[in-house]
Write a structure and sequence with these properties.
Distance between the termini: 34 Å
Helix content: 10-25%
Number of strands: 62
CATH superfamily of the domain at 863-1062: Transferase(Phosphotransferase) domain 1
Number of helices: 11
Structural class: alpha/beta
Radius of gyration: 33 Å
Shape: globular
Oligomer: single chain
Strand content: 15-25%
Length: 1062
């Protein structure tokens, strides 16, 4: 063995520590043990390894420092250490290895600055330290590495400006410095190397223009500079370079795309999304004959799509979302038959959808929503959406999406839509579609979401929908559907949301719906349903909302709401305007989470149960227009959350004081004979026999009359003062009916100058005083081009304030505008007091008419959802240490909401898109409290589910007043996303009976295939112990029994313990 010169142990299962005796093999020239399971440190006794030329220990679990004695191996030419868990600095002694040609230590946890001594490695051709924790700047001594061919320092924490000495490396071919914190201008001397083919500087803080920066890079084929602070115009000289990939998105480039750029015949990928580009697409676009990916979303581009786009025969991805393009969609576009993804959503396209779309044989995602498209749906609009043609494109967040909602489409839904077997989400809502719903939709076996609401559809609901075994959301509301509700819908065990509101459905409610034990929201309101409530509804104990108002339902509700059933999660019960009769069951008072109770306009009789006064969460109570008798329980005034209270048009007597919530101006007690109090003006009856008026009663009536007269006088005086504001509000209300004003709903006439001067209430001392006018200017009148997010609670705009600061402005959705201003201000003051490192700070707010704006701190790196599922090349960025950091920080933020603030705050919509990341990937929880803000504003609480269905716990839905246990479940789903890299729902789970991430993870664990769950990016042996422990936490969080889930404080403690694992 002492004469051994070469030892290869590659690709085996060797484990344990490397024996120190290896370094006694003084004649050893080459030692390779890559892709094993060795652990422990590299022995620090390499002084005798004078002959060693090549050392490859990559792909193991080696830890500790790179030994200083490495400098004694003076013949060393190749040192290959990637994919271990090495820590500490790069030793200075490595500079003694003057013959070193290759130094690779990527995918470790090395830290500290790069030693100047690396400049001594005059023979070095490749230096790769990607994905470590290196800090500091690039040493100027790197200019001495004249033989260097490849320099890869990407995904570290390095900073400072690039040294001019890099221009001395005249043989450099590939430069990777992405995902660091470098700043300053990009130096043009990088192009001193005429061999340079690849420059990757993405996700840094570089600023300035590109005036002549890359002009001399005559061999450049790949330029990646997205995610910086670059501005100015796109330079013409780029067209003179032999570029294959040009990625300049997420900067501040403005102006037109140069005409010359379209002449780059070699270009394969052009990413210029999320800038401020203007102008139209040139007819010269057809010169880019090789182009495969074109991303221009999130700019201010307008004009017609040029027919020359047909010449892009290799195009696979076209994303123009969120611009201002108009005119018809050119039929020529669909001669680009290799297209897999087409996203033209949120523009101003008009005309019909070309029938030529059927030429796209490999299309897997089509988004045309939020335009002005007319005509009928092409019969073969999605015939290519079949399981075996789904693209591997990392661009689309959701493969299998067909979204043509929010247009002006008419005609019937083609029967051929059933051939689109690869569709996962089908969105046709908010159009003018007519005719019957095709039963062929039932053949789309992987369908998860189906939304046909707000059309003019007629006929009956196809009973075949019962075959959609993976369906989680079914929305058919606001149509003209007739007939009965098919009993077969009870077979869809995965169903979470069923919304059939505002149709003409008749007959009884099928008893089979009681089999939908996972249902959280049921809305059958405003139909012609009759009969009694099915007793089987007692099985849906996890339901959050039941909305059956305005039907012809009858009978007693006492059997359904009996002592034997515990409705732990119910938040909303609306049975108003029906024919129910009998007494009100006292068990209603046991539904502790009930916040909305509407039983008005029925035939209920008997007394109001005193148990209703125990509903401490109650905000809305309407028992009006029944036959209720007896005393009104006096403790109703003790309900602190109540904002609407109507027991009028009954036969009630008694006395209510003006104290507590009964002094609230929203409380309605009008028309009640016999009640005293703040709003009672009728005579007061002390008992059932009708005794004479007492002095107190007379005094109360007199004072009430005086108060009424005073209020009337006050209203008359204020009427003229408020006249202009009222007119302004009406203008805004009218603008909501016009989709063309969607991006300019704050555009008001110059005669209304005062509202524009309304101050923005700021929680922290601002650098400048802000007004509504400032926000309008900062967002270019809420232009579509500034949209950076669009969720269930409203649209988010990026804004640059007068002092140069970037902020995010959330324009709340219409539902929140119905909320009283006093309640809104109270909510804002509460949310503004929430300060924590891992919460997105609410900086201020503005309430103007029916519009409500929230000003947040801007998060440079967007959402976790974007990085996990949508951002090109981002998965490599999210190594396990970053994911662990995100999990830990998000847990702390949510734990603070649950336990660190009084009153406790329930998030209600926890998901990966609500975890935002700052420039250092520090996570901050966003949108906390907004679900309550929106839901509390509606008279009839919305049954829309916020966010992706896969986050909804079994016992409630996201858009309702929820529980902390529900937040914990949603957080567990986020942990599973971090571990698997997969989305909560989708085609990935088609082999399971229920299509969601939680069930798939539990299924795989039950089969003993735990490590097969891991995202390949984090499948390193060194990380496996931590990943497994986090998986255990995720499984505990997603327990079906909410009472078995840990609290967020316990989750934080578990994650702290896991962080300590080596």
């Amino acid at each position: 063995m002492s004469s051994l010169t070469r030892l290869w142990l590659d690709d085996n299962l060797f484990s344990g520590a490397l024996p120190a005796e290896l370094w006694n093999l003084v004649k050893l020239v080459e030692f390779s043990a890559r892709n094993n399971r060795f652990s422990g440190s590299i022995p620090d006794n390499m002084e005798r390894m004078k002959a060693l030329v090549s050392l490859d220990l990559s792909g193991n679990s080696l830890s500790g420092h790179i030994p200083n004695s490495i400098g004694a191996a003076t013949e060393l030419g190749f040192l290959v250490l990637p994919k271990n868990v090495l820590t500490g600095p790069l030793p200075r002694e490595i500079g003694n290895c003057s013959k070193l040609q290759v130094l690779e230590a990527s995918f470790n946890s090395l830290a500290g600055p790069l030693p100047d001594e690396l400049g001594n490695l005059s023979s070095l051709t490749s230096l790769s330290l990607e994905k470590n924790h290196m800090s500091g700047s690039i040493p100027s001594t790197f200019g001495l590495l004249t033989e260097l061919d490849t320099l890869n320092l990407g995904y570290n924490q390095m900073s400072g400006e690039l040294p001019p000495q890099l221009g001395n490396i005249t043989g450099l071919r590939e430069l990777y410095l992405g995902s660091n914190e470098f700043d300053g201008r990009i130096p043009s001397h990088l192009c001193n190397s005429k061999k340079l083919t690849t420059i990757s500087l993405n996700q840094n803080n570089f600023s300035g223009t590109l005036h002549a920066t890359f002009k001399d890079c005559i061999s450049l084929t790949t330029l990646e500079i997205e995610g910086n602070r670059l501005y100015g115009s796109i330079p013409d000289y780029l067209s003179e370079l032999p570029l294959l990939s040009l990625m300049i998105g997420e900067n501040q480039f403005s102006g037109d795309i140069p005409e010359s750029l379209w002449n780059i015949s070699t270009l394969l990928s052009f990413h210029a999304a999320n800038n401020a580009l203007t102008g139209s697409l040139s007819m010269s676009i057809g010169q880019m004959r090789a182009l495969e990916n074109l991303h221009l979303e999130g700019n201010r581009l307008d004009g017609l799509l040029p027919p020359e786009i047909v010449l892009l025969s290799n195009l696979t991805i076209l994303s123009l979302h969120g611009n201002e393009f108009y005119g018809p969609i050119p039929a020529e576009l669909f001669n680009c038959t290799r297209l897999t993804t087409v996203d033209l959503g949120n523009n101003n396209f008009s005309g019909s959808i070309p029938v030529e779309i059927s030429k796209l044989e490999v299309l897997s995602s089509l988004v045309l929503s939020r335009n002005y498209l007319t005509g009928s749906m092409p019969e073969r609009i999605c015939h290519s959406f079949v399981d075996n043609t789904i693209s591997d494109s990392i661009f689309m967040q959701h493969l299998g999406v067909l979204d043509i909602s929010n247009n002006l489409l008419s005609g019937s839904i083609p029967e051929q839509i059933g051939d689109c077997s690869g569709v996962v989400e089908l969105h046709l809502s908010n159009n003018q579609l007519t005719g019957n719903i095709p039963s062929s939709i039932s053949k789309i076996s992987g369908l998860v979401k189906l939304d046909l609401s707000e059309n003019l559809l007629s006929g009956s609901i196809p009973y075949q929908f019962g075959e959609l075994s993976r369906l989680q959301g079914l929305s058919l509301g606001f149509n003209q559907l007739v007939g009965g509700i098919p009993a077969e819908l009870g077979n869809i065990k995965s169903l979470v949301l069923l919304n059939l509101t505002s149709n003409e459905l008749g007959g009884p409610i099928p008893d089979s719906l009681g089999r939908l034990t996972g249902l959280t929201m049921l809305d059958l309101s405003n139909n012609k349903l009759e009969g009694e409530l099915p007793l089987s509804f007692q099985n849906i104990t996890s339901i959050v909302g039941i909305h059956l108002w305005s039907n012809q339902l009858s009978g007693s509700i006492s059997n359904m709401f009996s002592e034997s059933v515990i409705w732990r999660e119910m938040q909303s019960l609306d049975l108003g305007r029906n024919l129910f009769s009998g007494p009100l069951p006292s068990v209603l008072g046991n539904i502790s989470g009930l916040s909305y109770l509407d039983l008005h306009s029925n035939g209920f009789e008997g007394p109001i149960p005193s148990s209703l006064t125990k509903l401490s969460q109650l905000t809305y109570l309407d028992l009006s227009s029944n036959h209720l008798t007896g005393l009104v329980p006096s403790h109703f005034c003790d309900l602190q959350e109540i904002v609407y209270f109507n027991v009028s048009k009954n036969e009630l007597v008694g006395e209510l004081s003006g104290a507590g919530s009964c002094g609230n101006q929203s409380v309605n007690l009008h028309g009640i004979a016999g009640l005293c109090g703040n709003k009672a003006y009728a005579k007061c009856i002390q008992d059932f026999q009708g005794s004479s008026l007492s002095k107190a009663a007379i005094f109360g009536i007199t004072m009430g009359t005086i108060m009424a007269f005073s209020c009337l006088l006050f209203v008359l005086i204020k009427w003229k003062m408020l006249k202009e504001d009222t007119l302004l509000s009406r203008m805004i209300e009218t603008s909501k009916l016009n989709k063309s004003l969607d991006s300019a709903s704050f555009a008001v006439s110059s005669r209304f100058k005062e509202p524009l001067s309304i101050n923005v209430a700021m929680f922290a001392q601002p650098l400048v005083r802000l007004t509504l006018s400032d926000l309008l200017m900062a967002t270019d009148n809420f232009s579509k081009a500034n949209i950076i997010g669009d969720g269930g609670f409203g649209t988010v705009y990026k804004a640059t304030l007068p002092d140069g600061r970037n902020v995010a402005i959330k324009k709340l959705g219409y539902g929140s505008s119905q909320q009283g201003n006093r309640e809104f201000l109270a909510e804002m003051e509460t949310l503004g007091k929430l300060h924590h490192k891992n919460l997105v700070p609410l900086l201020g707010y503005c309430s103007f008419g029916e519009e409500k704006l929230l000003v947040y701190e801007y998060m440079e790196n967007g959402s976790l959802d974007f990085w996990l599922h949508n951002k090109s090349g981002s998965m490599d960025t999210l190594d396990w240490p970053k994911r662990m950091k995100i999990a830990m920080g998000a847990a702390r933020g949510l734990a603070f909401l649950h336990h660190g603030f009084i009153p406790h705050v329930i998030h209600r919509d926890m998901k990966s898109s609500n975890i935002l990341l700052d420039s250092e990937f520090e996570p901050k929880v966003a949108d906390f409290g907004l679900a309550r803000l929106v839901s509390a504003s509606d008279s009839h609480v919305s049954t829309h589910i916020a966010g992706t269905f896969g986050y909804i716990p079994p016992e409630y839905g996201q858009s309702w007043r929820a529980t902390r246990r529900g937040d914990v479940f949603s957080f567990g789903v986020v942990l599973m996303e971090l571990i698997t890299g997969k989305e909560p729902t989708g085609l990935d789970y088609k082999e399971l009976e229920v299509a969601n991430l939680v069930d798939w993870v539990k299924h795989m664990v039950s089969l003993g295939q735990t490590e097969d769950l891991f995202d390949p990016i984090i499948s390193r042996p060194a990380w496996t112990p931590q990943v497994l422990q986090v998986l255990n936490v995720a499984l505990a969080c997603t327990s079906e029994d909410p009472f078995k889930r840990p609290t967020m404080l316990q989750v934080v403690n578990h994650l702290k313990d896991i962080e300590c694992l080596s």
